[in-house]
Design goal:
alpha/beta, 7 helices, 5 strands
């Protein structure tokens, strides 16, 4: 009697073969490029389309969300990263979950390079990300490094109860993308 086939082990063998073929693919200069290409092929398509952190690319955009003129009652979680290091990927799944948990609430996640504003100069040499929470243009909290429990606590503490952004919920339901 032949042993029963295990679907999981078949998938693992298929994934391993795909990785092996990709690692031998000409035109890929480094292991990282080959690994990233393989991860892109293996990742579900729906995850590639989810944008949780919106990038602030100019000093004007940074100031519009973090100074006195910032929209009222919005909680902004801003990840600051050094350009040479890039943003962290370790927190991305947590941010996606928080985005879903607080859908329609006045909470937005942003990503900013420490290079865009002089006020962020001290973060340019750090390989650790820094997360800042702003509300009404005021800095409420700062978290050095990836500290998911503390980030969740600060968001729960500072997110206004009961304030729902109806326009955002309707736009999301209709498939429209909100402008930042």
């Amino acid at each position: 009697m032949a042993p029963a086939k295990d679907k999981d082990s078949d998938k693992e063998r298929t994934d391993a073969r795909a990785l092996h073929r990709l690692l031998k693919t000409p035109g890929k200069d480094s292991d990282k490029e080959r690994t990233d290409a393989w991860a892109d092929q293996m990742a579900p398509a729906k995850d590639k389309d989810v944008v949780v952190q919106h990038k602030l690319e100019t000093t004007a955009e940074w100031e519009a969300h973090t100074e006195a003129a910032a929209p009222k009652d919005w909680l902004y979680v801003v990840e600051i990263y050094a350009m040479w290091c890039g943003p962290t990927e370790a927190i991305h799944s947590t941010l996606k979950k928080l985005n879903v948990d607080y859908m329609g609430r006045r909470l937005k996640f942003f990503l900013v390079s420490a290079e865009i504003a002089d006020s962020l100069e001290k973060y340019r040499l750090s390989s650790r990300p820094t997360f800042m929470l702003f509300k009404n243009g005021e800095l409420l909290e700062t978290i050095d490094g990836v500290n998911t429990p503390l980030l969740k606590k600060y968001i729960a503490d500072h997110l206004a109860d009961g304030i729902i952004d109806v326009d955002e919920v309707e736009a999301t339901a209709e498939g429209e993308e909100e402008e930042y």
